[in-house]
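INTERNAL AUDIT FORM
Audit reference: QA-55
Scope: verify that the stored structure record matches its stored sequence.
Auditor: D.O.
Record contents follow.
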Amino acid sequence: MGRASSPDGIFIFAIFQLAVKDRSGAESLWSHSLPLLRSTKHGFFRSAWWGTNLLLVIATLCLIYSAGWEHSVRQYLRGFSDAVVPDMATAEQKVEAILAWMRSGPPQPMAAHPEELSKRDPETTLNYQQLLSACGTATNAFLNLARSSGLSVRRLLLLTPQHNTKHVVAEVLIDGSWVIVDPTYRTIMRDENGLYLTRRDLQDPTVFAQAAKTVPNYPTEYNYDNFAHVRLARLPMQGLGLRQVLNRFFPAWDEAMDWSLILERESFFALVASFIATLLFLSLRISLAWYADRHLKITRFHLREHLWRAVWAFFTTPEIKPSSSPFLPTSEIKQ
Protein backbone atom coordinates (compact mmCIF):
# COMPACT_ATOMS: atom_id res chain seq x y z
CA MET A 1 0.00 0.00 0.00
CA GLY A 2 1.25 3.49 -0.78
CA ARG A 3 1.84 6.04 1.94
CA ALA A 4 -1.20 8.22 2.73
CA SER A 5 -0.88 11.89 1.83
CA SER A 6 -0.44 14.28 4.72
CA PRO A 7 -2.92 17.16 5.25
CA ASP A 8 -0.18 19.71 4.52
CA GLY A 9 0.57 18.07 1.21
CA ILE A 10 -3.08 18.07 0.21
CA PHE A 11 -3.41 21.79 1.12
CA ILE A 12 -0.32 22.75 -0.90
CA PHE A 13 -1.53 20.72 -3.87
CA ALA A 14 -4.97 22.41 -3.72
CA ILE A 15 -3.35 25.85 -3.64
CA PHE A 16 -1.23 24.93 -6.65
CA GLN A 17 -4.28 23.78 -8.61
CA LEU A 18 -6.19 26.98 -7.84
CA ALA A 19 -3.24 29.08 -8.95
CA VAL A 20 -3.01 27.21 -12.26
CA LYS A 21 -6.73 27.52 -12.90
CA ASP A 22 -6.64 31.22 -12.17
CA ARG A 23 -3.75 31.92 -14.56
CA SER A 24 -6.13 32.84 -17.37
CA GLY A 25 -7.89 35.44 -15.13
CA ALA A 26 -6.79 38.91 -14.17
CA GLU A 27 -4.72 37.92 -11.15
CA SER A 28 -3.66 34.61 -9.61
CA LEU A 29 -4.36 33.43 -6.08
CA TRP A 30 -0.72 34.13 -5.25
CA SER A 31 -1.05 37.72 -6.42
CA HIS A 32 -4.10 38.15 -4.18
CA SER A 33 -2.37 36.53 -1.21
CA LEU A 34 0.89 38.44 -1.49
CA PRO A 35 -0.39 41.89 -0.38
CA LEU A 36 -2.15 40.24 2.54
CA LEU A 37 1.07 38.51 3.52
CA ARG A 38 2.90 41.81 3.25
CA SER A 39 0.25 43.70 5.22
CA THR A 40 1.55 42.43 8.55
CA LYS A 41 4.82 44.26 7.91
CA HIS A 42 3.25 47.74 7.61
CA GLY A 43 1.51 48.23 10.92
CA PHE A 44 2.85 51.76 11.34
CA PHE A 45 1.66 52.77 7.88
CA ARG A 46 -1.81 51.35 8.44
CA SER A 47 -2.06 53.20 11.76
CA ALA A 48 -1.08 56.43 10.00
CA TRP A 49 -3.59 55.70 7.23
CA TRP A 50 -6.56 55.11 9.52
CA GLY A 51 -5.52 57.97 11.80
CA THR A 52 -5.39 60.35 8.83
CA ASN A 53 -8.81 59.19 7.64
CA LEU A 54 -10.27 59.69 11.11
CA LEU A 55 -8.81 63.20 11.38
CA LEU A 56 -10.06 64.00 7.88
CA VAL A 57 -13.60 63.00 8.84
CA ILE A 58 -13.42 65.09 12.03
CA ALA A 59 -12.05 68.11 10.11
CA THR A 60 -14.78 67.76 7.48
CA LEU A 61 -17.50 67.64 10.14
CA CYS A 62 -15.97 70.72 11.80
CA LEU A 63 -15.93 72.46 8.42
CA ILE A 64 -19.62 71.73 7.87
CA TYR A 65 -20.51 72.89 11.39
CA SER A 66 -18.43 76.09 11.20
CA ALA A 67 -19.88 76.90 7.75
CA GLY A 68 -23.38 76.68 9.21
CA TRP A 69 -22.29 78.75 12.21
CA GLU A 70 -20.78 81.48 10.03
CA HIS A 71 -23.87 81.49 7.81
CA SER A 72 -26.16 82.01 10.81
CA VAL A 73 -23.91 84.85 12.08
CA ARG A 74 -24.03 86.56 8.69
CA GLN A 75 -27.81 86.22 8.56
CA TYR A 76 -28.09 87.77 12.02
CA LEU A 77 -25.79 90.67 11.12
CA ARG A 78 -27.57 91.27 7.83
CA GLY A 79 -30.91 91.53 9.61
CA PHE A 80 -29.41 93.78 12.29
CA SER A 81 -27.76 96.11 9.78
CA ASP A 82 -30.94 96.29 7.68
CA ALA A 83 -32.72 97.66 10.74
CA VAL A 84 -30.02 100.28 11.37
CA VAL A 85 -28.59 101.30 7.99
CA PRO A 86 -30.71 102.59 5.05
CA ASP A 87 -30.37 100.52 1.88
CA MET A 88 -29.74 103.36 -0.58
CA ALA A 89 -27.43 105.38 1.68
CA THR A 90 -23.94 106.48 0.68
CA ALA A 91 -20.83 105.25 2.50
CA GLU A 92 -20.74 108.36 4.70
CA GLN A 93 -24.43 108.00 5.54
CA LYS A 94 -24.00 104.35 6.42
CA VAL A 95 -21.15 105.17 8.81
CA GLU A 96 -23.17 107.95 10.42
CA ALA A 97 -26.19 105.66 10.77
CA ILE A 98 -24.17 103.00 12.60
CA LEU A 99 -22.56 105.60 14.90
CA ALA A 100 -25.98 107.15 15.59
CA TRP A 101 -27.31 103.76 16.66
CA MET A 102 -24.29 103.21 18.92
CA ARG A 103 -24.69 106.73 20.33
CA SER A 104 -28.44 106.89 20.95
CA GLY A 105 -29.95 103.53 20.10
CA PRO A 106 -32.14 101.42 22.38
CA PRO A 107 -30.58 100.88 25.83
CA GLN A 108 -28.53 97.71 26.04
CA PRO A 109 -28.60 95.41 29.08
CA MET A 110 -25.78 95.39 31.60
CA ALA A 111 -24.10 92.02 32.12
CA ALA A 112 -23.62 90.90 35.70
CA HIS A 113 -20.25 89.36 34.82
CA PRO A 114 -18.91 91.14 31.73
CA GLU A 115 -15.57 89.35 31.95
CA GLU A 116 -17.40 86.12 31.06
CA LEU A 117 -18.84 87.53 27.83
CA SER A 118 -17.39 86.43 24.51
CA LYS A 119 -15.60 89.43 23.02
CA ARG A 120 -15.42 87.84 19.57
CA ASP A 121 -19.07 86.90 19.18
CA PRO A 122 -20.91 89.55 17.09
CA GLU A 123 -24.26 88.87 18.73
CA THR A 124 -22.73 89.41 22.17
CA THR A 125 -20.83 92.58 21.31
CA LEU A 126 -23.95 94.19 19.84
CA ASN A 127 -26.18 93.51 22.81
CA TYR A 128 -24.30 94.46 25.99
CA GLN A 129 -23.54 97.98 27.11
CA GLN A 130 -20.17 97.14 28.66
CA LEU A 131 -18.86 95.76 25.38
CA LEU A 132 -20.15 98.72 23.37
CA SER A 133 -18.23 101.00 25.71
CA ALA A 134 -14.83 99.28 25.45
CA CYS A 135 -12.71 100.30 22.47
CA GLY A 136 -11.88 96.80 21.23
CA THR A 137 -15.37 95.30 21.33
CA ALA A 138 -17.04 98.59 20.26
CA THR A 139 -14.82 98.61 17.18
CA ASN A 140 -15.68 94.95 16.52
CA ALA A 141 -19.39 95.78 16.70
CA PHE A 142 -18.94 98.66 14.28
CA LEU A 143 -16.90 96.55 11.85
CA ASN A 144 -19.46 93.73 11.83
CA LEU A 145 -22.35 96.09 11.04
CA ALA A 146 -20.29 97.99 8.46
CA ARG A 147 -19.32 94.80 6.60
CA SER A 148 -22.93 93.65 6.55
CA SER A 149 -23.84 97.03 5.06
CA GLY A 150 -21.40 96.59 2.19
CA LEU A 151 -18.61 98.84 3.47
CA SER A 152 -14.89 98.04 3.19
CA VAL A 153 -13.46 98.30 6.69
CA ARG A 154 -10.51 97.14 8.75
CA ARG A 155 -9.27 97.32 12.34
CA LEU A 156 -6.43 99.63 13.38
CA LEU A 157 -4.48 99.27 16.63
CA LEU A 158 -2.79 102.33 18.15
CA LEU A 159 0.34 101.22 19.99
CA THR A 160 2.60 102.58 22.67
CA PRO A 161 6.36 102.81 22.05
CA GLN A 162 6.56 99.40 23.78
CA HIS A 163 4.10 98.03 21.16
CA ASN A 164 1.24 97.57 23.61
CA THR A 165 -2.25 98.45 22.44
CA LYS A 166 -3.54 101.73 23.88
CA HIS A 167 -6.61 102.22 21.67
CA VAL A 168 -8.51 100.58 18.81
CA VAL A 169 -10.20 102.40 15.92
CA ALA A 170 -11.57 101.51 12.50
CA GLU A 171 -10.67 102.48 8.96
CA VAL A 172 -13.45 102.84 6.38
CA LEU A 173 -12.86 103.14 2.66
CA ILE A 174 -14.67 106.32 1.54
CA ASP A 175 -14.00 107.81 -1.90
CA GLY A 176 -10.74 105.88 -2.23
CA SER A 177 -9.32 106.92 1.17
CA TRP A 178 -9.17 104.97 4.43
CA VAL A 179 -10.94 107.37 6.78
CA ILE A 180 -10.48 106.97 10.54
CA VAL A 181 -13.61 106.21 12.56
CA ASP A 182 -13.49 105.96 16.36
CA PRO A 183 -16.49 103.83 17.43
CA THR A 184 -15.68 104.28 21.13
CA TYR A 185 -16.34 108.03 20.83
CA ARG A 186 -18.95 107.50 18.07
CA THR A 187 -17.22 109.88 15.67
CA ILE A 188 -15.48 110.20 12.32
CA MET A 189 -12.17 111.98 12.71
CA ARG A 190 -12.27 115.41 11.00
CA ASP A 191 -10.05 118.46 10.88
CA GLU A 192 -11.16 121.98 11.82
CA ASN A 193 -12.69 122.38 8.36
CA GLY A 194 -14.80 119.24 8.71
CA LEU A 195 -12.75 117.18 6.23
CA TYR A 196 -12.32 113.47 6.85
CA LEU A 197 -8.87 112.41 8.04
CA THR A 198 -6.81 109.33 7.26
CA ARG A 199 -4.17 107.64 9.35
CA ARG A 200 -1.39 109.50 7.58
CA ASP A 201 -3.15 112.82 8.13
CA LEU A 202 -3.38 112.14 11.85
CA GLN A 203 0.33 111.38 12.08
CA ASP A 204 0.83 115.13 11.78
CA PRO A 205 0.72 116.45 15.40
CA THR A 206 -0.96 119.69 14.32
CA VAL A 207 -3.73 117.91 12.43
CA PHE A 208 -4.21 115.44 15.27
CA ALA A 209 -4.53 118.27 17.80
CA GLN A 210 -7.20 119.92 15.63
CA ALA A 211 -9.12 116.63 15.31
CA ALA A 212 -8.91 115.92 19.04
CA LYS A 213 -10.42 119.31 19.84
CA THR A 214 -13.55 118.49 17.86
CA VAL A 215 -14.26 115.43 20.06
CA PRO A 216 -15.17 116.14 23.72
CA ASN A 217 -12.74 114.63 26.24
CA TYR A 218 -10.69 112.91 23.57
CA PRO A 219 -7.35 111.71 25.05
CA THR A 220 -4.37 113.33 23.37
CA GLU A 221 -2.23 110.24 23.96
CA TYR A 222 -4.26 108.40 21.29
CA ASN A 223 -1.85 109.54 18.60
CA TYR A 224 -0.85 107.64 15.47
CA ASP A 225 2.91 107.45 15.94
CA ASN A 226 2.81 103.66 16.28
CA PHE A 227 0.08 101.47 14.83
CA ALA A 228 -0.64 98.01 13.43
CA HIS A 229 -3.52 96.08 11.92
CA VAL A 230 -2.37 92.84 13.54
CA ARG A 231 -0.48 92.75 16.83
CA LEU A 232 1.81 89.73 16.60
CA ALA A 233 3.22 90.48 20.04
CA ARG A 234 0.23 88.56 21.45
CA LEU A 235 1.73 85.36 20.07
CA PRO A 236 3.95 83.24 22.35
CA MET A 237 7.55 84.49 22.62
CA GLN A 238 6.59 87.77 20.92
CA GLY A 239 5.86 85.97 17.67
CA LEU A 240 9.54 84.97 17.28
CA GLY A 241 10.25 87.92 15.01
CA LEU A 242 7.45 86.97 12.62
CA ARG A 243 6.60 90.59 11.82
CA GLN A 244 10.16 91.32 10.68
CA VAL A 245 10.14 88.27 8.42
CA LEU A 246 6.77 89.18 6.90
CA ASN A 247 7.77 92.81 6.43
CA ARG A 248 10.88 91.73 4.59
CA PHE A 249 9.32 89.25 2.16
CA PHE A 250 5.73 90.58 2.02
CA PRO A 251 5.87 94.31 2.74
CA ALA A 252 2.13 94.88 2.29
CA TRP A 253 0.89 91.82 4.21
CA ASP A 254 -0.51 93.94 7.06
CA GLU A 255 -2.93 95.74 4.74
CA ALA A 256 -3.44 93.01 2.14
CA MET A 257 -6.64 91.74 3.77
CA ASP A 258 -9.03 92.34 6.63
CA TRP A 259 -7.27 90.32 9.34
CA SER A 260 -9.78 91.36 11.98
CA LEU A 261 -12.46 89.26 10.28
CA ILE A 262 -10.39 86.16 11.06
CA LEU A 263 -8.96 87.19 14.40
CA GLU A 264 -11.99 88.92 15.92
CA ARG A 265 -14.91 86.72 14.78
CA GLU A 266 -15.09 83.26 16.33
CA SER A 267 -17.25 81.68 13.66
CA PHE A 268 -15.07 82.82 10.75
CA PHE A 269 -11.88 81.78 12.56
CA ALA A 270 -13.37 78.31 13.11
CA LEU A 271 -14.36 78.16 9.42
CA VAL A 272 -10.86 79.10 8.21
CA ALA A 273 -9.13 76.78 10.68
CA SER A 274 -11.33 73.79 9.80
CA PHE A 275 -10.92 74.50 6.07
CA ILE A 276 -7.12 74.52 6.40
CA ALA A 277 -7.23 71.33 8.50
CA THR A 278 -9.43 69.61 5.91
CA LEU A 279 -7.04 70.54 3.09
CA LEU A 280 -4.07 69.41 5.16
CA PHE A 281 -5.48 65.98 6.03
CA LEU A 282 -6.87 65.50 2.52
CA SER A 283 -3.43 66.19 1.05
CA LEU A 284 -1.86 63.82 3.56
CA ARG A 285 -4.37 61.11 2.68
CA ILE A 286 -3.68 61.50 -1.05
CA SER A 287 0.07 61.26 -0.39
CA LEU A 288 -0.34 58.13 1.73
CA ALA A 289 -2.59 56.55 -0.89
CA TRP A 290 -0.02 57.25 -3.59
CA TYR A 291 2.75 55.75 -1.44
CA ALA A 292 0.68 52.66 -0.68
CA ASP A 293 -0.16 52.05 -4.34
CA ARG A 294 3.24 52.81 -5.86
CA HIS A 295 5.72 51.54 -3.26
CA LEU A 296 4.16 49.34 -0.61
CA LYS A 297 1.65 47.57 -2.91
CA ILE A 298 -0.87 47.36 -0.08
CA THR A 299 -4.49 46.58 -0.88
CA ARG A 300 -6.80 49.32 0.38
CA PHE A 301 -10.38 50.48 0.05
CA HIS A 302 -10.74 52.78 -2.97
CA LEU A 303 -13.50 55.15 -1.93
CA ARG A 304 -13.84 57.03 -5.23
CA GLU A 305 -14.01 53.81 -7.25
CA HIS A 306 -16.73 52.35 -5.04
CA LEU A 307 -18.69 55.61 -5.04
CA TRP A 308 -18.51 55.77 -8.83
CA ARG A 309 -19.73 52.19 -9.13
CA ALA A 310 -22.59 52.91 -6.72
CA VAL A 311 -23.63 56.03 -8.64
CA TRP A 312 -23.35 54.20 -11.97
CA ALA A 313 -25.47 51.32 -10.68
CA PHE A 314 -28.07 53.70 -9.29
CA PHE A 315 -28.57 55.75 -12.45
CA THR A 316 -28.34 52.96 -15.07
CA THR A 317 -30.98 50.42 -16.02
CA PRO A 318 -29.92 46.84 -15.38
CA GLU A 319 -29.79 44.60 -18.44
CA ILE A 320 -32.17 41.63 -18.24
CA LYS A 321 -30.66 38.61 -19.96
CA PRO A 322 -32.77 35.75 -21.34
CA SER A 323 -33.34 33.02 -18.79
CA SER A 324 -32.15 29.51 -19.40
CA SER A 325 -34.91 28.13 -17.16
CA PRO A 326 -37.21 25.65 -18.96
CA PHE A 327 -40.19 26.91 -17.01
CA LEU A 328 -40.10 30.48 -18.39
CA PRO A 329 -40.10 30.98 -22.20
CA THR A 330 -37.58 33.42 -23.63
CA SER A 331 -40.29 35.25 -25.62
CA GLU A 332 -42.07 36.22 -22.41
CA ILE A 333 -38.90 37.75 -20.96
CA LYS A 334 -38.32 39.91 -24.04
CA GLN A 335 -41.87 41.21 -23.89
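Auditor finding: record pair retrieved intact. Residues 1-5, 10-16, 18-39 have pLDDT under 50 and may be disordered.
Action required: none
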